[in-house]
Amino acid sequence: GPVGLGARQLKTLAMEFTVIDYSIFVLLLVLSSAIGLFYALSGDRQRTVQEFLLANRNMSFLPVALSLLATFQSAVAILGVPAEIFRSGTEYWFLGCSYLLGLLIPAHIFIPVFYRLRITSTYEYLELRFNKTVRVFGTITFIFQMVIYMGVVLYAPALALNAVTGFDLWSAVLTMGLVCTLYTTLGGLKAVIWTDVFQTLVMFAGQLAVIIVGAQRVGGMARVWHLADKEGKISGIDLDPDPFERHTFWTLAVGGVFMMLSLYGVNQAQVQRYLSARSEQEAKLSCYAVFPCQQIVLCLSCLTGLVMFVYNQEHPLAPNQRHSSPDQLVLYFVMDVLQDLPGLPGLFVACLFSGSLSTISSAFNSLATVTMEDLVRPHCPGLSESRATLLSKLLALGYGLLCLGMAYVSSMLGPVLQAAISIFGMVGGPLLGLFCLGMFFPCANPTGAITGLLAGLAMAFWVGIGGLLHNMRAAEAPPPPNGTALPAVGNLTTILTTTLLAPTPTPQSPTGLQKFYSLSYMWYSAHNSTTVILVGLLVSLLTGECGGVGGPAVSRPPSPSALPPRPHAASCCGPPHHLPGAAPPALLPAPEVQAEAVLWGDLPCPGKGPRPQHRGERGWCVVGAPPPAVLLLSPALSLQGADHADATVKSNGVGNGLAPPGLQEEEEGQGYIRAAGAPTYALQETSF
């Protein structure tokens, strides 16, 4: 009978994982380690913090783009997206519509701000814009997000693989974790980026092998498409605007943009790659280059799902396999299709673990970066370059070992594993909202920022975890004992990953506040980031701190009345940032010497003579500033510096790694602070 066939087939699959397959898997690990060792022993040998954490800021756009792609193309995605297509049709494919805006906005708004600031940690921006407390809150939120996620992303695929193929669970977890820790600790970001490139190619190869062999066995891709269409798996455009529908065109194309922004706009793992590019232009190019790569990855995943569906029509799974968790479902299909082709099952397993390696290596590196820059350096200003580099390597090592610990914790979570995977998606939205609050709303103050972030996180966990529990209670069948039972509503991993699972039986429609539990997971980022912004603005208006109405006095630059006037559109909820009632800028100490501000504005300078006869005549004005000089970073300002002076300036304890730019003619509204015998800082106004 079919059950006997399924048991026999399962036994065969476990036996068919041959020496060749294991060899390919081992080759992946050896080559990944070799790349790490190569960068540990070549170049400057990872002797500076800048080389270890930012690859010396000299990467070209193509490896950066492939690394951006690999970072969140985790094994959960490789298993989850085909399972979604298999069960629900091609509706998910419309997510590709969100990629264009989801990458153009980071390229033209977030990258210029972060790159010109010459920062290492994204959260340095929060201190410049708000204060140190906001920076620490942002950093701790990110660490919480990544620490929980990295253990799950290593453990969940190994668990599925063990269930289907008999591949030893803890051998896989320990080997992958230790190899990844090795090359991340030795080779720094440069090794992480180049192993990502290699692992991306392995992922492409593994998925292509499955599609080509699978399609060939059912009569070609044209027949796959025809049969899938006949069975109603090729979805049309659903223009239903209801945000409570799991997948519609608007949910995927618009909600997906916010999910993309939380990943490619403000996530430390991705921003760190932009900052490693040799120029701002290369950083933008890497963002453009990710676009076609993502479309290819999405197509491969969706085609795998369609081939899986048609193959299942002609070679049905055994009943006990049919009810497996979705990640196991894909593996049963892959092993069945490839089992008589030695080496190809091993290639797919290598593809799977390439997804895990690229994700957790990025987690180690970004966690070491934020811990070093946001928590260690501010408290140890006299730390030498060599000690700082050693400490960064030890942090990467420590997070690698912690990842193994989290994988062990994941093994004991049981059903809670779903929630752990979902936490990654829940936290991304509030962090996006925090950065948008700082960049787009000059009236926002630190109190508003912290309150908004906490409100956004509370909303995220209430809707996310509440929805998860609501659906679990409504589900009739418990998850398989050896499966990860990925959630139907949880934003599993991220954009490409959103591992969407098996539709659980639809519960009775909730009412009142419980209605939020039915919110499509695709709207989580938009909903939570909007919560942060609205609460942040409301609290900022009520507290009026930092220069708002009724707020406490703060250190200020020369009176705006002494500066050349510049027209500026009023913000939505407060005066323009250069007026007395504006939200105050973050203040950075500059060298205690007499300084002067050189500003471009209307001629003549204030108090310097009659107005010119021709309107609109402009030129340079010099305005004295009282010592000690104060470097201003207004809510709508970014700083631009020259290349490659970051490590030197930081080690001297000046500013935030801003390098001295050349004084050159700039556009209207830009000015320069300069002080004798000290680095010069350029202030470039960036209004959105």
Automatic annotation (TrEMBL):
Compartments where found: Apical cell membrane
Keyword match Cell membrane: yes
Annotated TM spans: 20-41, 61-81, 93-115, 136-157, 169-189, 201-219, 248-266, 287-311, 347-370, 390-410, 416-441, 448-469
Listed Gene3D superfamilies: Sodium/glucose cotransporter (1.20.1730.10)
Any one GO MF annotation of this record: monoatomic ion transmembrane transporter activity
GO cellular component: a single term: apical plasma membrane
Role this protein plays: Sodium-dependent multivitamin transporter that mediates the electrogenic transport of pantothenate, biotin, lipoate and iodide. Functions as a Na(+)-coupled substrate symporter where the stoichiometry of Na(+):substrate is 2:1, creating an electrochemical Na(+) gradient used as driving force for substrate uptake. Required for biotin and pantothenate uptake in the intestine across the brush border membrane. Plays a role in the maintenance of intestinal mucosa integrity, by providing the gut mucosa with biotin.
Subunit relationships: Interacts with PDZD11.
Protein name: Sodium-dependent multivitamin transporter
